[in-house]
Amino acid sequence: RLLDVVHGQKKLYLVFEYLNQDLKKYLDSSQTGEIPLSLVKNYLFQLLQGVSFCHSHRVIHRDLKPQNLLINEAGTIKLADFGLARTFGVPLRTYTHEVL
Question: Over its length of 100 residues, how does the chain's per-residue pLDDT go in tens digits?
Fold first, then answer.
């Protein structure tokens, strides 16, 4: 959730809500390394809803991984780190398959 937009001298800062845990930290902190199937289904459903929302707004995330899936206290998954995201539709410029 975007909380504020701060205009600096030469930069623009976006202030988002703070979530202190990502899916990787959550999985690493599990004693057995396993999570209940019901929770897996819940997280997967939320992830698919988020990806569907992005795609419906013509955005491809391109960097989905446990570290970029944030979890709040209520167990809500939020997509993060859109640094590699791209819009799709009419191509504006050519991209390479190479990883930087």
Answer: 889 999 989 988 888 899 989 999 999 998 887 889 999 999 999 999 999 999 999 999 999 999 999 999 999 999 998 888 888 876 666 666 676 6
Catalytic residues: 63
Task: Tell me the domain boundaries of the chain.
Answer: 19-100
Backbone CA torsion sign across 63, 83, 96, 87: positive
Number of H helices, E strands in the chain: 2, 7
Second CATH level (architecture) for the domain 19-100: Orthogonal Bundle (1.10)
